[in-house]
Specification:
Elements lengths: L24 E9 L8 E7 L2 H6 L5 E10 L6
Protein name: Host cell division inhibitor Icd-like protein
Length: 77
């Protein structure tokens, strides 16, 4: 059975370290408060360059589950 584990540097764009402008994302993270007696996940939208940075903002008080990411500053015709 293969485990899906986020690499230490977090999920990120392949162009992030290519010399172009930094890429930022809105990370969608489902999180459950650690002190909540019922398991009720809340969806959080966090702007950050990496998944790790986004999770760090919630990790103290929440158990986090990755849900997705949206790239900022992109327009589609």
């Amino acid at each position: 059975m293969q485990e899906n584990i986020t690499p230490e540097q977090g999920r990120h764009s392949l162009t992030q370290n290519s010399g172009t402008a930094p890429v930022s994302f809105v990370w969608i993270i489902a999180a459950v408060r650690r002190d909540c007696p019922t398991v009720k996940a809340i969806i959080h939208h966090i702007a950050a360059a990496t998944e790790r940075e986004a999770r760090r903002t919630l990790a103290k008080d929440h158990v986090c589950f990755f849900a997705g990411r949206l790239r900022q500053g992109v327009s589609h015709a």
